[in-house]
């Protein structure tokens, strides 16, 4: 990532009592001397890969929301130097202004979805223009700021140098830290899963219960049976399989954060022995298994950030790679369990015929299907433009086996 540069009026004369007259953040303090404009440079970080804004101006509690909104809409980022709670308030005020631009529904569900995503992308870009400085210890030197050092170290790794991030991204980092501390209760394993930042979280537990309830194929009930968990995320499904008594579970994921998270959960749960989290560099690990479990991202669209990689699968690439590789990776009598929401079907992004056609093309037959209705607040949110699709959504566990 690149650097970001901004100019800021700073008092440079020594204060009578010592110090350089500046706050720890280099921001102005009242030393009685005239502020001078100085240019600062810091590292720029954006999880969505957004380039460093070229126009940056300093903002604080005196900045009016309407002025701030005009500036961010014109492409000028605001580097916040005021009170932390004031910055959060400004972010909410900007969000309310953006909410007024909600797109009209499209002629088809797919069009509504694409308009909705476009609007969300615009919202994220505009809100991402309110910036804060993380000091070289990841600290936030703003009045009434919480201590974000642990949260930032978890999400970004050890601090190296002053870094500018968007406040919106930082709030996500803080939220993820809280979830990681608290954990998500998983009744199927009688314990908690602790999601890391940027790793798909099993807060919607219905699919976990499907994996806990589906009948294991005879091949997977034999001693020393191996299972694969492809795209393991937090490791939750590997943990369920270990709980169900499988002797060896090999878990893979393309995301380094997911691999670290799954290892952490396996260790916390004390199930280290049967579960191997491997960086295979491919979807399938070496060898064959009696059971292959895969819960791919369920919407065929491009993710715009690491956090979205658990939800969006461009061109259904992971889904198709799972199906196409399955027969060659199953032991005799083995099964593949595909966990998939049908939201893409309700949004007109994939048809049921296309899904079933992909099973056929991969030489697979359906042994059985278990369905669950998602229980999440958005399913009953009638103001959500995608409400109809979400309300109709069903998550299925497809038990697949080679056709011959
Ligand atoms: C919907 S999440 C499921 C996570 C976890 N299995 C669960 O059920 O909670 C999909 C996971 O697939 C991973 N993933 C996406 N594309 C992948 C690929 N090509 N190879 C391996 N993992 C992939 C993502 O990083 C994410 O962790």
UniProtKB/TrEMBL annotation:
Domain of life of the organism encoding this protein: Bacteria
PROSITE patterns on file: N6_MTASE
Xref: InterPro entries: DNA_methylase_N6_adenine_CS (IPR002052), N5-glutamine_MTase (IPR050320), SAM-dependent_MTases_sf (IPR029063), Small_mtfrase_dom (IPR007848)
Matches recorded under Pfam families: MTS (PF05175)
Annotated stretches, region: Disordered: 1-37
Residues in Methyltransferase small domain copies: 193-339
Biased composition (Gly residues): 16-26
Protein name: Methyltransferase small domain-containing protein
Annotated organism of origin: Streptomyces lasiicapitis
